[in-house]
Fold:
Amino acid sequence: LINRTASKLAGLDNKHHLIVEYIGSEGNTKEKNEMGRLWKVRKNIFKDLASNDYIYMEDPYVPFDNMGEFLIWLEKNSVPCFGPIITGGLHPCFANRENSSLMYEQVLNLKGSVGKRFGIGLLKKEYLNEISKIDFRKLKETFDPANVLNRGKVI
Structure:
């Protein structure tokens, strides 16, 4: 998915774009040039957003059942985003990292969670659920039993 806000910033038609990949042995690609163009758009979307000062990419997880409400929230708040919608892991982008806090509040309201793909920093730690905190503590105890690294930063 590339939402309307991201599409506009990337110079695409001012609409949502859903790119679907079909893997199978039946059928043919009708327009190979169009397929190549779409994958190039998908590959370059973050670069296009970053050139418009949207340099902070987040990675929240939102359950599929609540994805529609999340997409509406992003649209109302003019937050550009893209990503594999079916996995629940979109990539909203921000010009100011602090603006993502409102988004994470919405994610939690929708029974989602902080994505861990890009790491958990000081900004996202307050949005971690208890299970994630327990998991982080176990990792920390295993790999840093003397508590030397990043003392008090996340857990």
Summary: The chain has a mean pLDDT of 86. The first helix runs from residue 4 to 9.
